[in-house]
TrEMBL record:
Record function comment: Catalyzes the hydrolysis of glutamine to glutamate and ammonia as part of the biosynthesis of pyridoxal 5'-phosphate. The resulting ammonia molecule is channeled to the active site of PdxS.
MF term (GO), any: pyridoxal 5'-phosphate synthase (glutamine hydrolysing) activity
Taxonomic path: Bacteria, Bacillati, Actinomycetota, Actinomycetes, Pseudonocardiales
PANTHER family associated with the record: PYRIDOXAL 5'-PHOSPHATE SYNTHASE SUBUNIT SNO, PYRIDOXAL 5'-PHOSPHATE SYNTHASE SUBUNIT SNO1-RELATED
Entry-linked SUPFAM superfamilies: Class I glutamine amidotransferase-like
Family, per entry: Belongs to the glutaminase PdxT/SNO family.
Tree of life domain: Bacteria
Source organism of the structure: Actinomycetospora endophytica
Pfam families reported in the protein's UniProt record: SNO
Matching NCBIfam families: PLP_synth_Pdx2 (TIGR03800)
Active site: C79 (nucleophile), H181 (charge relay system), E183 (charge relay system)
Gene3D superfamilies referenced in this protein's UniProt entry, alphabetically: 3.40.50.880
Identification of the protein by name: Pyridoxal 5'-phosphate synthase subunit PdxT
Keyword Hydrolase attached: yes
Reaction(s) this enzyme catalyzes, per UniProt: L-glutamine + H2O = L-glutamate + NH4(+); aldehydo-D-ribose 5-phosphate + D-glyceraldehyde 3-phosphate + L-glutamine = pyridoxal 5'-phosphate + L-glutamate + phosphate + 3 H2O + H(+)
Length: 203
């Protein structure tokens, strides 16, 4: 298939490379504008969004990445990657850059007020074969979505409290994002969905 990359500045890079390999892809780490220019799709891993934002600037990737996203490059963001892709992030540092590829407002460290991390089984629209085990680590949730955004997963009501029903996975055209970490569970169905999208958009 077309070449895909994992943004390799910080965070869960090896896990995403492994998950993409498990789907039969030959992914490459992306650290330089020239590497970004060669990929047909990009995973933005979890990590720490403030740090990632600074590193995007330091590595001269911020504007090239905005450019690729604005012309329809498929992308898949997890956790901090979701925060970066969002139009707006609540409780982010004021100088944190947003890529604006998803018309969503996220709340950073949203679950932190209750629990730092937890796991839950979720059903994800477009993913067959049963629920997805979702690992949340200092995760954001999605406060609101624009018209063009599909909500593909929510926190089940069985979790209880304020988190119940919160949006934790979205898709807008070629861009998708999860508040959780699909690279941590050995279940590559979301990566597979991303790769299908890359093939569709490259065709
Ligand atoms: N809390 C982190 C942030 O704000 C995200 C955590 C993660 O990616 N696991 O960027």
């Amino acid at each position: 298939g077309p070449p895909v990359g994992v943004l390799a500045l910080q965070g869960n890079v090896p896990e995403h490379l492994d998950a993409l390999r498990a789907c039969g892809a030959d992914p490459r780490p992306v650290r330089r504008p020239a590497e970004l220019a060669e990929v047909a799709g990009l995973v933005l891993p979890g990590g720490e969004s403030t740090t990632l934002s600074k590193l995007l600037v330091a590595f001269d990737l911020l504007e090239p990445l905005r450019g690729r996203l604005s012309t329809g490059m498929p992308a898949f963001g997890s956790c901090a990657g979701m925060i970066l892709l969002a139009r707006e992030a609540i409780d982010a540092r004021p100088d944190q850059h947003q890529l604006g590829a998803l018309d969503i407002v996220v709340r950073r460290n949203a679950f932190g007020r209750q629990v730092q991390s937890f796991e839950s089984d979720l059903s994800v629209t477009g993913i067959g074969g049963g629920p997805v085990r979702a690992v949340f680590i200092r995760a954001p949730w999605v406060e609101s979505v624009g018209r063009g955004v599909d909500v593909i997963a929510r926190v089940p009501s069985s979790i209880g409290g304020e988190a119940s029903g919160k949006i934790v996975a979205v898709r807008q055209g070629p861009v998708m994002a999860t508040a959780f970490h699909p690279e941590q569970t050995g279940d590559a169905r979301l990566h597979d969905l991303f790769l299908r999208r890359v093939r569709e958009y490259a065709a």
